[in-house]
Amino acid sequence: QAIADPTLAEMGKNLKEAMKMLEDSQRRTEEENGKKLVSGDIPGPLQGRIQNIGEQGHMALLGHSLGAYISTLDKEKLRKLTTRILSDTTLWLCRIFRYENGCAYFHEEEREGLAKICRLAIHSRYEDFVVDGFNVLYNKKPVIYLSAAARPGLGQYLCNQLGLPFPCLCRVPCNTMFGSQHQMDVAFLEKLIKDDVERGRLPLLLVANAGTAAVGHTDKIGRLKELCEQYGIWLHVEGVNLATLALGYVSSSVLAATKCDSMTMTPGPWLGLPAVPAVTLYKHDDPALTLVAGLTSNKPADKLRALPLWLSLQYLGLDGIVERIKHACQLSQRLQESLKKVNYIKILVEDELSSPVVVFRFFRELPGSDPVFKAVPAPNMTPSAVGRERHSCDALNRWLGEQLKQLVPASGLTVMDLEADGTCVRFSPLMTAAVLGTRGEDVDQLVACIQSKLPVLSCTLQLREEFKQEVEGTAGLLYVDDPNWPGIGVVRYEHANDDKSTLKSDPEGEKIHAGLLKKLNELESDLTFKIGPEYKSMKSCLYVGMASDDIDVVELVETIAATAREIEENSRLLENMTEVVRKGIQEAQVELQKANEERLLEEGVLRQIPVVGSVLNWFSPVQPLQKGRTFNLTAGSLESTEPIYVYKAQGAGVTPPPTPSGTRTKQRLPGQKPFKRSLRGSDALSETSSVSHIEDLEKVEHLSGGPEQMTLEASSTEGHPGAPSPRHADQTEALKKGALRPEVDYPQVEGLESLR
Known about the structure:
The model is unreliable at about 35-50, about 365-385, about 660-665, about 680-695 and about 705-755 (pLDDT under 50). Among the domains are: about 60-90 and about 100-305, 3-Layer(aba) Sandwich (Aspartate Aminotransferase, domain 2); about 330-365 and about 385-455, Aspartate Aminotransferase, domain 1 (Alpha-Beta Complex); about 460-570, Aspartate Aminotransferase, domain 1 (Alpha-Beta Complex). It is about 50% helix and about 10% strand. Helix 10 links the parallel strand 5 (about 235-240) and strand 6 (about 260-265). It has 24 helices and 17 strands. By secondary structure, the chain is an alpha+beta fold. The longest helix has about 50 residues, at about 555-605. The strands form four sheets. The protein has a seven-stranded mixed sheet, with helices on both faces. A four-stranded antiparallel sheet has the order 8-9-11-10.
């Protein structure tokens, strides 16, 4: 088609040259750097940091640069060119999305278009608003109806932009009995409208959703349109499902949006176009009111906002636009069909045939055939127990969502909290696939990751209640209920000086928990342990992580308690030992000083004179007696060193106390990690084999140690060879009964050797 305007012809020629430059540059870059894009060749701090925007992204960015150059044209040429760009873009959008005879308003802020529409509705319904202003609104207050599932902060934004008080907003609840819990309750809305009319208010505008911000559900737009026509209310529709209007098959609920008064769309995320404005399509016959409301403008700069989208739509073409939206919907259908085959995953989808948004969550309330999961909470369950189960499931779903986001970043998942369903994971490829380049292989990888995480979630759920009961039944441990922790549980060790009446920082408790964390991590088990919380105003706790296999909770809790108790006793012993050593040093200094004074008195004064003492010592030498003090750490007593110099050996002292250990020890198989629960058969086999092995070792030691022991005892009784001593007879009888172990007599053997 020939372009009559020479300015447009010249612009088209320049665009062709720019596109050729882009294609040549990209081809040359791909040949040099493989798959590296042009954006990576930007020098400076941006090099390597710009995401993959593709050729269509470069076209959108080129539109901003062209807009700056076009603004320098002659006013008449500029007016014609901007009008042509605006009209072409509006016509294309209306045809692509089936919105006949509409006008378009391009805006950077997504909510700005709705604010302009509200002003247009006010000027249309209040004829004297331009003259009387707020007095007209005061006499008959306008009412704006928003769904309870609308995006957060939308009502407050509208009131701030329009200067209206918050009572002008009316929150319409969603269905509670029939239909989707994320759809507007039409019957209740009609009741609200009737009540407002009776009170002298003016129902002004209704905001419906074609794909809610959370789960992508669509309101009954056809029924809402009939209600709005009945009461003269402006109907505005927004949502991600409006993108499906470009496809060949459209659900009836979304198709009804083409009959509304206005709609807001975001083609930038849908098509993967950066820096592209949002578009609000509307129908109105009075250009003066649209000018007053700010929907139209005579400034060329405002009309040039459509230039990036104008270039991108021409570059993609109708087939390219439809292909991108269709690909996103196919990704959603692929994930939805795959998740139906995965156990314990609940899908929150309104329309299984055409929903472009998939919301799912890990669901534990399944039939009682599986012992891992509990059934629906019984009526006799307390609300606190139900709430605890809800928070517990929310924490697991939050962990699952974060894990999936890290493992499959191209999926563009979002973790969100829903009032009715709790924490869920959302997959909305219409908003992310074009930018992230999501493919079908990414969806398959996502499903595989979900299946790999299910055993971890199942084991953790199974062990939580058992862990809580064991901790509550163990002395010295306190169970901490933290609903945001996705692991097995949280436990805190209460030491002797723990002040339970306050939540202030506890240095001694922090020291014990830090040592406990170090000890548990040294065991190299499959469990992860952490110390928290990070807030210093709270006491330290031990957080036990997710369980990937069947864990022996009893052994785990006893190990935690025994290890913490051992750390506390060792720290207390060290503190006591420090004080005892300090006092012992002081006492030793005093005794050594007294010993020096006694030595001076025994030797006499003459021996202390240098020359006389040497002569006297030559004639009458003095036998030197070395005296000192040794400190027994085990007994905590100060002893003399005289036996060391006389007998040339140190005393045995007091036997140190045994190291505290757990009350329950478990025989592990070779290669078995700590806290693993073995099968009953293997446990019985391992215990039997270990017991028999120990008995065999005892027999070997008994036979090998018997003759030597009897020889030593015989040598000690050489004076009476005829009759054995009573002690020897008793030991022989005890040895026959198996009550005397060879290792018990080791100290006696050493004593006999020394006497020999």
